[in-house]
Amino acid sequence: MTVDTTPTSVSGINIKSSQNRLLIKNGKIVNDDGMEDLDVYIEDGIIKQVGRNLIIPGGTRTIDATGKLVMPGGIDPHTHFELEMMGAKSADDFYKGTRAAVAGGTTCVIDFVLPQKGQSLLEAYANWREKADGKVCCDYGLHVGVTWWSPQVRKEMQQLTTEQYGINSFKMFMAYKDAWMLDDYDLYCAIETCAELRALPQVHAENGNIIARNTEKLLAKGVTGPEGHQLSRDEEVEAEAVNRACVIANQASSPLYIVHMMSRSAVRALQQARARQRHVLLGETLAASVGTDGSHYGNSCFRHAAAHVLSPPLRPDPATPQALCEALADDDLQLIGSDNCTFHEKDKELGKNNFCKIPNGVNGVEDRMAILWQKAVNTGIMDPCRFVAVTSTNAAKIFNMYPQKGRVAVNSDADLVVWDPKLERTISAATHKQAVNFNIFEGQHVVGSPQYVIVNGRVCLDDGELRVVEGFGKFIKTAVDSPAVFGSAPAPAAAPAQLDVSHVSNGSPSPDLGNMTKSVESLSVSGCSTPTGRKMREPGARNLQTSTFSISKEIEGLDTKTSVRVRNPPGGKSSGLW
Ligand SMILES: NC(=O)NCCC(=O)O
Ligand SMILES: [Zn+2]
């Protein structure tokens, strides 16, 4: 692939007149719930027709997608572009980061506004919009961090969920003591406020106090190198926080989304909580954790080891990547993000003599799709529909962007990937588009990558050639009360600004506690009703045995005839992911 190093500004060309009509012919459309051989016609950034023998205006550009998959563009639910943390600023800004995203097949990212303790959330939100709006090459949304607690924060959360701001998710940290961490009381208040607002609380689940004490002990023993990072925060430290976050969410009668789940122990804790809780519990893992592992912390080269430092850390257990792929396939986890938060070498060196000063973060926004395809689809763990679910559709549903995003269908945004399942390449910092000169997937050979990436109807990766436009993307406002999270029951009439003490639990499940959402019986396990990727299909559902389209030996035989099917339609048993 080659890069256009000179970005074309939106004002510099007439994008619309040259590229407003596009036909993608002869491909296989893959949605989260089915696949079918159909053509797609796009006009003015919107999918206008899907079918065969379409009637198309003259002069329309045609892309021949024979032997390729036509999928909704990836949605990366977790990025940190231009983030100031631990004395440094992440290297990918909103231009370079979204450009790398598009190169890898992602057409929408959701970044995190992270206020400093004491800072107004509205002010931080305005800063993020200012950093992003003129730079993004694809659409983006925002989550907002709740990094401190006060009545003002509560009020600003309410304001942020209005149409003016378009926020429907808030992230709280159980780690980063003395920086972004909330104690359990404040976490409870924040989650409870989310529930009242019908917004989705997200947590970074690690026990910050245990990490702080372990760090002191390790440093006192002379363990100062990057290997200390993992040692200070092992799987148990993650799993304990997952469990605690779930308990707090249950007490607050709230759904919960756990970001970057990095270990088998953490997934087990989430499964156990699901078995007893009333509300939807969602889990996200990362490209990093399915694509590599914690053995790198032992590398004698500081640059190499430090480049892998992120939190929670990569795990030394070599079975972790496959287990996380299986968890994604089985709907134990619902999405894969990147947590892209790259730092230049000079910034990682801030922790040269003390691992706890190494700025946390890795690359992934560019390689997320190809890494998961390689590790999970090419190995037969997951089928292409589930791949679409976990890389795109579930994020669209959870964050209430669906079906504008996350689906190949008439009236959806023309954010598409023409995926070549046979395209082979070797991932390398020498050729990637990210701002740093290190790639945690360096040298990995992948089979399957995007050939074309269409962003709002514009071909931004054109037969491997990157042609992004700085500022072409737009901010996507997201409304609260996502059906995927809160079910299809109407929101309570009470104004959200009023605290409702009836949700305070005495610790035992009670029907009274569930009055803000549907009871768990009426929700699917995770809230994501997309089929899992490797289970036996119900009669009439997709047949994985009889197809003619071959992606790899393992998944040979995907049905070419099946049309898009909805397993749990509106009004059916699901929470409303349709
Ligand atoms: N994950 C990480 O190591 N860096 C980004 C900030 C965060 O999400 O914790
Ligand atoms: Zn993060």
Automatic annotation (TrEMBL):
Q: Output the InterPro entries linked to this UniProt entry.
A: Amidohydro-rel, Hydantoinase/dihydroPyrase, Metal-dep_hydrolase_composite, Metal_Hydrolase, Metallo-dep_Hydrolases_sf
Q: Which GO terms describe its cellular component?
A: cytosol
Q: Positions of the region Disordered?
A: 504-552
PTM annotation: Carbamylation allows a single lysine to coordinate two divalent metal cations.
User: Which reaction is recorded as catalysed by this protein?
Assistant: 5,6-dihydrouracil + H2O = 3-(carbamoylamino)propanoate + H(+)
N6-carboxylysine modifications at: 171
| Protein's GO biological process | pyrimidine nucleobase catabolic process
Query: What EC number(s) has UniProt assigned to this enzyme?
Result: 3.5.2.2
State a single Gene Ontology molecular function. metal ion binding
Q: Which domain of life is it from?
A: Eukaryota
Instruction: Alphabetically list the UniProt keywords.
Output: Hydrolase, Metal-binding, Zinc
- According to the UniProt entry, which residue ranges have a biased composition of type Polar residues? 516-532
Cofactor names from the entry are: Zn(2+)
Protein transport as UniProt keyword = no
**Residue ranges of every copy of the Amidohydrolase-related domain listed in the record:** 69-459
Family note: Belongs to the metallo-dependent hydrolases superfamily. Hydantoinase/dihydropyrimidinase family.
> What is known about its subunit structure?
Homotetramer.
| Stored NCBIfam families | D-hydantoinase
Question: What name has this protein been given in UniProt?
Answer: dihydropyrimidinase
Q: What is the lineage of its organism?
A: Eukaryota, Metazoa, Ecdysozoa, Arthropoda, Hexapoda
Which gene does this sequence derive from? LOC113497922
